[in-house]
Specification:
Blueprint lengths: L3 H9 L7 E5 L6 H11 L6 E3 L18 H13 L2 E6 L2 H9 L4 E4 L1 H4 L2 H11 L5 E5 L6 H13 L5 E5 L16 H10 L5 E3 L1 H5 L5 H10 L4 E5 L17 H10 L10 H42 L6 H17 L4 H23 L2
Parallel strand pairs: 1-2, 1-8, 2-3, 3-4, 4-5, 5-6, 6-7, 7-8
Protein name: chorismate mutase
GO biological process, one term: chorismate metabolic process
GO molecular function: chorismate mutase activity; transferase activity
Length: 360
């Protein structure tokens, strides 16, 4: 890939005093809807107005976008508000039409990023373009696949590149629509610290009331910007209604977010400290989630023991666990004393859970 200054060049040229903001409706529905939202966002922190023209959907029969007609609406947005425009492209035909309608920023969606063939087709169609091209992470947590898409675009002589972190699909239900898997985004930042990275809290959360918290975490992790879906009547949106916010709410979110200004002499120290603390917060939440899952398994064991009238404490099994975990902990740099204390506490909580079940 290009050297680090060239990677950030397009973003630095914007000379922003706040994170980059890409906002607008999940889907362009009507010309009136597109223009109304744009006018409500034109004098805000929004830098690029987004609208989905082609909508790749999980299952057939769902609204899949208005198609090329919507590109003319984006042209009107630019003419009437002066805002730069952005949309998703999923094949060479989309690229051709988007370039013909002078869309300023294009992104490749999560479903497209999973296919090197699709990415290569898009890269060939964009070869040498001066447009900004962002790549959403693939739906599955595969860092190599994500980076591979960027490399294909870079090889096609596309200079203005960046990535969008929108979370990852998981069969297991969580509080998120798409699990953020923050560690993958952090690893990408570590490998390419000057590759602009945008967070998409709308797709991560799937719920508008969680967008602020995820946005704040992203900024604490030194993300460069946010892509937030915005609609004047989100409850009646034609797609992804529950994850869109009104322009008024978006403006308030941007006001409430704590954004570090690099003005004091210890700015680098504070920035790095906040980043590391944000990483710890993420891991702490993961630990709590895992402990919750462990106790659910313990509850199920309690039910089985009650059915068979088996004692809660099984000393042989417990000693096997302790010995194995001490060795595993040592391989991770954890002291035997710490591992023993931690697992004794976990074991006691499991016993408490099972005794409640057995005792009714």
């Amino acid at each position: 890939m290009e050297n680090k200054k060239e990677l950030r060049g397009w973003l630095d040229d914007l000379n922003l005093d706040h994170p980059l903001v890409i906002a607008g409706p999940c889907s362009a529905e009507t010309e009136e809807q597109v223009l109304r939202i744009a006018h409500e966002l034109k004098d805000t922190d929004v830098n690029y107005y987004r609208a989905g023209i082609w909508k790749p959907r999980t299952r057939p029969g769902m609204f899949e976008g208005v198609g090329a007609l919507g590109l003319k609406w984006l042209q009107k947005v630019k003419a009437e508000t002066g805002m730069k425009t952005a949309t998703e492209v999923a094949n060479a035909a989309h690229v051709k039409l988007a370039l013909e309608h002078d869309v300023d920023l294009l992104w490749i969606g999560a479903r497209s990023t999973v296919s090197p063939f699709i990415v290569q087709e898009i890269a060939d169609a964009l070869n040498g373009t001066d447009k900004i091209v962002l790549v959403k992470n693939p739906v599955n947590p595969d860092l190599a696949l994500w980076l591979g898409a960027i490399e294909r675009l870079a090889t096609a002589n596309i200079k203005k590149l960046g990535v969008i972190h929108r979370g990852f699909s998981t069969y297991e239900k969580t509080k998120y629509r798409n699990n953020p898997e923050w560690q993958l985004a952090i690893e990408l930042q570590t490998k390419f610290p000057d590759l602009p990275i945008i967070n998409d809290p709308s797709h991560i959360t799937g719920k508008r009331d969680m967008i602020f918290d995820v946005s704040q975490t992203a900024l604490d992790l030194n993300f460069d910007g946010l892509m937030i879906e915005t609609h004047f009547d989100p409850d009646n949106a034609w797609s992804d209604a529950s994850q869109q916010v009104t322009p008024k709410v978006l403006i308030q979110i941007m006001k409430d977010l704590k954004i570090k200004k690099e003005t004091d002499p210890e700015a680098d120290y504070n920035k790095n400290l906040d980043n590391l603390r944000a990483q710890i917060d993420i891991v702490d939440n993961q630990i709590i989630d895992l402990l919750g899952k462990r106790m659910k398994a313990a509850d199920s064991i309690g039910v089985l023991k009650k059915q068979k009238n088996v004692a809660v404490l099984q000393s042989k099994r417990w000693n096997e666990i302790l010995g194995k975990m001490v060795l595993e902990g040592e391989s991770k740099g954890l002291s035997e004393e710490f591992v023993l204390k931690m697992f004794k506490a976990i074991h006691q909580e499991s016993i408490n859970h099972q005794e409640k079940i057995i005792n009714g």
